[in-house]
Design goal:
The complex is a heterodimer. Helix content of chain A is 0%, strand content 53%. Chain A is built from no helices and twelve strands. Chain A has strands at 3-5, 10-14, 19-21, 24-26, 32-39, 46-52, 60-61, 64-69, 74-79, 88-96, 103-104, 108-113. The termini of chain A are far apart. By secondary structure, chain B is mainly beta. Chain B contains no helices and eleven strands. In chain B, the strands form two sheets. In chain B, strands 2, 4, 5, 6, 9, 10 and 11 form a seven-stranded mixed beta sheet that branches. In chain B, strands 1-3-8-7 form a four-stranded antiparallel beta sheet, with no helix packed on it. The termini of chain B are far apart. The chains are: A mainly beta, B mainly beta. Chain A binds chain B through residues 33, 35, 37, 42-47, 50, 52, 91, 95-97, 99-102, 104-107, 109, and chain B through 32, 34, 38, 41-44, 46, 49, 91, 93, 95, 97, 102-106, 108, 110-111.
């Protein structure tokens, strides 16, 4: 069975700093997708970034980038120039290519301090 | 972008009553919709997967007779919590996967907070 592990339950960083959230996963599949979702205090789930497993290039969305290490089954999220609005719960998630179900990690609560 | 709405956003009901939560995809057709439950400070727990026009597939441990799911159209799925009890109090989130979805992406509704007295 596929699993997603986020080893950092909670993190705090100063505004404008860079922070990296870690995620590892376990699967025997070769085709899958990885996501980072943000859940702010409003509790609306927001897609931050997506990575296709077949792509070697790391995905980037403005201040958000990932370090995707397929062999190591690692998928970390880097937030550059962090902003107060980045304060949220961040979930790493995995979806197999042939399946619909998202498998979520337990989440990392990120606090951006002024 | 793809928008998913949920109604109501919050509901309070008495123990023993039934509550219906609607999930709508507003600007796209959803072949598949998902229902999640989230306890405070925890991750999302998938309850069931519903495909338009067919019976929902429930995750292990989820009572199908208690959590009735209907997916009657490509834009609407409903979750009915029957004979609700205080332990059913939670945050319920739906998501929808578009007919032509990039990377199996799901779009999430804003959630419904259910409180059973």
């Amino acid at each position: 069975a596929q699993t997603v592990t986020q080893s950092q339950p909670e993190m705090s960083v100063q505004e404008a700093e860079t922070v990296t959230l870690s995620c590892t996963y376990d699967t025997s599949e070769s085709n899958y997708y990885l996501f980072w979702y943000k859940q702010p205090p409003s509790r609306q789930m927001i897609l931050v970034i997506r990575q296709e497993a077949y792509k070697q290039q790391n995905a980037t969305e403005n201040r958000f980038s990932v370090n995707f290490q397929k062999a190591a089954k690692s998928f970390s999220l880097k937030i550059s120039d962090s902003q107060l609005g980045d304060t949220a719960m961040y979930f790493c998630a995995f979806v197999m290519n042939r399946d619909d179900k998202i498998i979520f990690g337990k989440g990392t609560r990120l606090h951006i301090l002024p | 972008g793809a928008v998913v709405s949920q109604h109501p956003s919050w509901v309070i009901c008495k123990s023993g009553t039934s509550v219906k939560i609607e999930c709508r995809s507003l600007d796209f057709q959803a072949t598949t919709m998902f229902w999640y439950r989230q306890f405070p400070k925890q991750s999302l727990m998938l309850m069931a997967t519903s495909n338009e026009g067919s019976k929902a597939t429930y995750e292990q441990g989820v009572e199908k007779d208690k959590f009735l799911i209907n997916h009657a159209s490509l834009t609407l799925s409903t979750l009915t919590v029957t004979s609700a009890h205080p332990e059913d109090s939670s945050f319920y989130i739906c998501s929808a996967r578009a007919v032509a979805s990039l990377g199996n992406e799901q779009f999430f509704g804003p959630g419904t907070r259910l409180t059973v007295l």
